[in-house]
Each structure stands twice: as structure tokens, then as C-alpha cells.
Amino acid sequence: MLNIFLAIVSLIFFTTSCQTMRGDKPLAEKVIKSDPSTNLTLGLVQMTVREGASKNDIISSLGSPNMVTSSGSKNETWIYDRVSTDIQRENESGSAGLEVGFGGSGDVVGGNIGAGASSKSSGEVVVRTQRTLTVIIKFVDGIVSSYQTRATSF
Fold first, then answer.
1. Residue 148 phi, psi dihedral angles, 5° rounding
2. Closest Cα to residue 138, out of 129, 148, 126, 123?
3. Across the strands, what pairs with 49?
4. Residues 115, 98: contact at Cβ < 8 Å?
5. Residue 57 neighbours by CB under 8 Å, 6+ apart
6. DSSP collapsed to 3 states, 114-132
7. What are the tens digits of pLDDT across the range 30-42?
8. CA angle 20, 127, 79 (to 5 degrees)
9. The pTM is what?
10. How does residue 5 score in pLDDT terms, banded at 50, 70 and 90?
11. Measured between alpha carbons, how far is residue 127 from residues 14, 33, 116, 154 in Å?
12. Quick check: 114 and 100 in contact, CB under 8 A?
């Protein structure tokens, strides 16, 4: 009977041990929190901002700038500056264990045999990514004369 018990416990141990599961959800489903200012992207800027575009074209696509400066009556500079933080969480589980114990009191009648299996979750991995996008657009007479972009991700 002890052999049958140990065989069952061993079977449970080997079928539940060393299981590691990583999430296979697409990246978009793993994003928990995203800053709403990420609507302004480098791709949108590259599609929208062209030399010869008007202020109205830029505002309708990119929205209001963060800063506007004037140098003279006809020259104006608009600056768009965005910072966003994406947080991704991924759950991991693993490590199953087996507990087997034998105990006795020294006499023939007394004695204990115990067994158990346990599973433990190992927590989650958190990945934070910060991105910045700065767009500088120069206007002469309300028309884009030049623009620059700077994008970082860390």
C-alpha cells in the first residue's frame, strides 16, 4: 500500500513540477497603462508636416502646440513636446513542490506518513518604457518653412 501511495504522489509531482507559463497575449493586450498624449506619433508628424502646409492643416492633424514663440511679425515657431510611459506586465508561474514525511514515536503502533503537493506562483515582470517626441515647426506668413523632429525611447 505504501508503494501505491508513493507512486501516486510521484505521478502528481512529475506532472505538476517545473511548469513555467509566460503570457502569450499580443503586446497590445499586455499594455496596462498608456499616457493619452501618445496620440502624437512620429509617423503622424511625418505624414502631416510638409513645407508649404498651413497652420490650419497642422492644428487639425496634430492639435495645439505646447509652446508658440514669435520672432517678428511674420515668423512663428511652434513646439510640440510629448512624453509617454508604457507599462507592461507579464505573469509567470512556476515551481511545484512535493512534501513527503515519515514520522514515528518509537513503538510499533505509533507512526505517521504524510504527503502533499504544492504549487507556487512566482509573481510578475513589469517592463516600463518611456518615449519622448519633440517637434519644432517654423512658419513664415502662416506657412511651414521648416521643421525638425527628435524622438527617443528608453
1. -135, 150
2. 148
3. none
4. yes
5. 48
6. EEEEEEEEEEEEEEEEEEE
7. 444 444 444 788 8
8. 160
9. 0.53
10. low
11. 32, 11, 36, 11
12. yes
Rg (CA), the chain: 31
pLDDT tops 50 at residue 122: yes
Is residue 15 helix, strand or coil? helix
**Distance in angstroms (rounded) separating the CA atoms of residues 33 and 66:** 23
Gap between the Cα atoms of 13 and 114, Å rounded = 14
| Residue whose C-alpha cell is 512534501 | 99
Whether 71 has a pLDDT exceeding 60, the answer reads yes
Q: Is 55 exposed, middle or buried (0-12, 13-18, 19+ CB in 10 A)?
A: middle
Contact 99, 116 (CB under 8 A): yes
Query: Residue 130's Cα: distance from chain center in Å?
Result: 10
In three-state secondary structure terms, 54 is strand
Residues 50-62, mean pLDDT to the nearest whole number: 93
pLDDT tens-digit series, residues 86-95: 888 877 655 5
Residue found under cell 507512526: 111
Residue labelled with grid coordinates 513542490: 97
Q: Give the residue extent of every domain in the chain.
A: 2-17+30-153
Q: Which residues pair with 126 in a beta bridge?
A: 89
